[in-house]
Design a protein that fits this description.
Blueprint lengths: L1 H36 L4 H12 L8 E9 L2 E9 L3 E8 L5 E8 L4 H50 L10 H12 L7 E8 L2 E7 L3 E8 L5 E8 L3
């Protein structure tokens, strides 16, 4: 009999506790419903978050909005992302005030990194190819000019006995240098033109480039030539 009474008391206590828990849950649920009904609403919460982030809804890839209770306040937990960033917002349910936000920049995907690296390599390869082609063209131009001068010199040697011992004139040396550089004679201004031993050292420029050439004073061949871009 005593055991029956004791068991009965335990059952009553358990049922009472269960009833209290159910009532509490019902009360919380009711409070949540009341708070949600009097809140700004899901759509408004989304707009407040997007407005603060400066993001247009059409640019959002994914969005999730949850009504919840945080730090003694009912809030909307708004999460969304764009092509470049992830956004997380806590918007106060009663008036739309932004209580908390977190913005994280996305890391570039491996495919984008590979494409960027590939484009960089292609660009570098193209630049090197263009530079090599330009240098080859310039070298060929110098060789062609040298051949012409040597040919002229050989022809003059046949006509004149003493030409092998005579230096070419300064004007001819300048003409050879301009021709080798590819510059327009009308645009060229010389800043240096001196005969040093058996070599004419010449420096000149046009609107975009500065040139430095050394011309053999006897044969007229181009000993060396270089250019430097000075354009704006």
């Amino acid at each position: 009999m005593k055991n029956f009474i004791k068991n009965k008391k335990v059952q009553v206590t358990f049922i009472s506790c269960l009833v209290v828990v159910v009532l509490v849950l019902i009360g919380i649920s009711a409070m949540n419903m009341v708070a949600k009904d009097s809140s700004i609403g899901t759509e408004a919460a989304k707009k407040f978050a997007l407005l603060d982030a400066g993001v247009k809804e059409k640019n959002v890839k994914h969005m999730d909005v949850q009504f919840t209770y945080k730090d003694s306040t009912y809030v909307y937990d708004v999460k969304f992302d764009t092509e470049k960033k992830d956004y997380s917002y806590f918007v106060k349910a009663s008036n739309g005030v932004i209580l908390e936000k977190k913005i994280v920049k996305k890391k570039a995907s491996s495919k984008k990194k590979e494409k960027k690296s590939s484009d960089k390599k292609k660009s570098k390869k193209s630049k090197n190819k263009d530079k090599s082609s330009e240098e080859s063209s310039k070298h060929k131009k110098i060789q062609d000019t040298t051949k012409k001068v040597k040919s002229k010199s050989k022809y003059d040697d046949e006509d004149e006995d003493d030409d092998a011992e005579n230096v070419i004139g300064m004007d001819e040396a300048k003409s050879i240098a301009i021709s080798a550089s590819g510059a327009n004679p009308g645009d060229v201004v010389f800043t240096m033109a001196v005969l040093s031993g058996d070599t004419y050292d010449l420096q000149f420029y046009d609107s975009n480039t500065e040139y430095n050439y050394s011309i053999d004073a006897f044969s007229g061949s181009v000993m060396s030539g270089s250019s430097n871009n000075i354009g704006g």
